[in-house]
Structure formats: C-alpha cells, structure tokens
Amino acid sequence: MTRFKIEIERPLCISCESCVNVCPGFWEMAEDGFSHLKGSKRVGDNEEREMDDAGCNIDAAEICPVICIHVYENGKKII
Questions:
Q1: CA 28, CA 21: separation in Å to the nearest integer?
Q2: CA distance 56 to 73
Q3: How far apart are CA 26 and CA 24, in angstroms?
Q4: From CA 16, how far away is CA 1, in angstroms rounded?
Q5: How does pLDDT run along the chain (79 residues), one tens digit per residue?
Q6: Edge-to-edge strands of the sheet including 76-77?
C-alpha cells in the first residue's frame, strides 16, 4: 500500500528552484520554467506522485516559499 502522496500546485510555483536544490532526485525544472515532480501524473494544473517513502520531498515542501508542495501520509495532509 502506498503511504505518501506528493502534490505540487504548479500555478503557484515561482520557479525559485528550492525544491530542486534540496531534493534533486525527485524535482527538476520543466521546459516551461516551473518545477516538475519526476515520475508524477498531471491532475488538472497540478502534479501528483504516490510513493512508499517521502524522503527529501518533506524538505522540499518545507522550504518552498509559496507553499505549493504538499505531502500527504495515508491520505492525511502533513505539510
């Protein structure tokens, strides 16, 4: 059973690259200049990815200056 879901609200992204700097294994800058969660699926304007271990994505969510990255554990938002 997947334990974590990571979500980014891309319309809120300001392209600061903080997530890429703290968690480059999961984050990169997309061609449009905004953050992209590697291996994610598009849901409307957002991106989501489920995983067993949130790892450095928690750091990425905490460092995001516009709070557009969210982490859910077992369906409950933790960041």
A1: 9
A2: 14
A3: 5
A4: 33
A5: 679 999 999 999 999 999 999 999 999 999 999 999 999 999 999 999 999 999 999 999 999 999 999 999 999 999 9
A6: 41-43, 46-51, 4-8, 69-73, 76-77
* Separation of alpha carbons 67 and 52, rounded Å: 22
Residues 35 and 29: beta-carbon distance below 8 Å: yes
List the structure tokens of 4. 């974590």
For the chain, how big is the Rg over CA atoms in Å? 11
Token digits of residue 46? 């957002």
Catalogue all structural domains in the chain, each as residue range(s) with its CATH number: 4-77 (3.30.70.20)
